[in-house]
Amino acid sequence: MNDLILTFNTGSSTVKIGSFEWDGLSLHKSAKAGIDFAASPLSFHMERGKERLDLQLQSEDSADIVSVLSEVFDKLSTHIDLSRIKAIGHRVVHGGDVFAGPALIDDRSIQAIDELSAYAPLHQPKSLALIKAIRQLFPDILQTASFDTAFHRTMPDVNRRFAIPRAMHDQGIKRYGFHGLSYQSIAQHFTQLEPDLGRKKLVVAHLGSGASLCALREGKSVDTSMSFSTLDGIPMATRCGNIDAGVLLHLLSQQNMSTDELTDMLYHRSGLLGVSGISGDCRDLLASDAPEAKQAIDLFTTRIAGEISRQVTSLGGLDAIIFTAGIGEHQPEIRALIARKLQWLGVELDEVANNKNAFRISTQSSKIAAFMLATDEEQVIAAETLTVLNQSSQ
User: Fold this and answer.
1) Is residue 11's pLDDT more than 80?
2) What is the DSSP letter of 57?
3) What positions does the entry give for ATP binding (predicted)?
4) What is the distance between the alpha carbons of residues 126 and 90, in angstroms, rounded to a whole number?
5) What is the per-residue pLDDT across 219-249, written as a single tens digit (0 to 9) for each?
6) 9 is known to lie in a ligand binding site
7) pLDDT (average), residues 379-388
8) pLDDT tens digits, 305-332
9) Is 249 marked within a binding site?
10) Is the separation of the CB atoms in 96 and 116 below 8 Å?
11) Is 88 helix (H, G, I), strand (E, B) or coil?
12) Cis status, amide bond into 41, omega within 30 of 0
């Protein structure tokens, strides 16, 4: 009987769960599930082959994560033999300068993850609560953590620094980068599909409700748009992206905004939603005739094209652009608008291939190749969990 590796990918309001079979040679995803904490009542869904399960959870308090997980594992047990679970791997957003790769969950790593919560206050505590809850429910199951920031540890120092006093940099105020598990997935998969091109100069556009871009050379991160927090870079569904620090000083000192109000505005009421006043979802905005919707899309695609252009400087050239994540994988109109703004760089999309969401979406004559490739963060987490397992057994 094969061992099972479970993965937990904690987002702002959802938790994606992956189940992987390990036969000693390869990992195979056998099922996927999710918890929607934004739903009322809480909901749980699961897909296993052609089987699909959608259930409302009895747990009424989403803050009681032990109760929620206890019910979720009870649901899973009717479809998966939980006794086969070898380990559980977690996505943790921030590893700071402490974690350069995946880590075994123990008292010391839990403390280190907790101490990094100040750098990611909206994401880190949720991952930590999940880890502690599983530890309480299944104390004998080994757990591991995979960090979004670890992939970007290869960035040169000049790309990690802000122009602030050196002492602040040394205290940890620097550019870390995020979506690292997604970029790692793309770097590995793309190199398998395009061995020669995969080792060249690439920009990957991870475009979802949270969005960022990453410059890759030889499959390693050279530069990225998100920096100290998940607010920086390009505009997102409800997050502002890059903003003049003077605006924040003005809001705090002249408009007497509290830090809580400012946090809410920057994370939840800005981005595409803030500009359009309609929605943070590109699909809604593309379907709308409102000029504010068009303006939001234009701002979004203009900033993405501008960020790609900036990262070309970091790379010293560009060979290909890869689109991934929810918007990048499924919205050809957005890809086309970005490509149109990069025609000066030599990007030319094949309209038919782009509309079909094909793998290669640029013409053969395009100076810069363009691709669409699905990301798989859970596969990366599962593989890293096995790496930690092997290391711990040695």
Assistant:
1) no
2) -
3) 16, 206-210, 281-283, 326-330
4) 11
5) 999 999 999 999 999 999 999 999 999 999 9
6) yes
7) 95
8) 999 999 999 999 999 999 999 999 999 9
9) no
10) yes
11) strand
12) yes
The CA distance from 215 to 202, in Å, is 6
Q: What is the mean pLDDT of the chain?
A: 93
**In this structure, what token pair is assigned to residue 56?**
């409302």
First to last CA, the chain: 23
Structure tokens at 50: 């052609």
Q: How far apart are CA 375 and CA 182, in angstroms?
A: 6
- The response to whether 166 counts as a known ligand-binding position is no
Query: Would you please indicate which residues are annotated as catalytic (active-site) residues?
Result: 148
- Phi/psi region, residue 374 (left: phi>0; alpha: psi -120 to 50; beta: rest), is beta
- Which domains are delineated in the chain? 3-147 (3.30.420.40), 194-372 (3.30.420.40)
Confidence band of 61 (pLDDT split at 50, 70, 90): low
The arrangement of strands across the sheet holding 211-217 comes to 220-224, 211-217, 201-207, 320-324, 369-372
Locus of tokens 């757990």: 143
Positive or negative, the Cα torsion across 343, 345, 351, 357?
A: negative
Gyration radius of the chain's alpha carbons = 21
The secondary element (H helix, E strand) that includes residue 47 is strand 43-48
Q: Looking at the predicted structure, is the pLDDT value of residue 282 above 70?
A: yes
Does the reported pTM lie above 0.90? yes
Contact indicator for 211, 233 with CB cutoff of 8 Å: yes
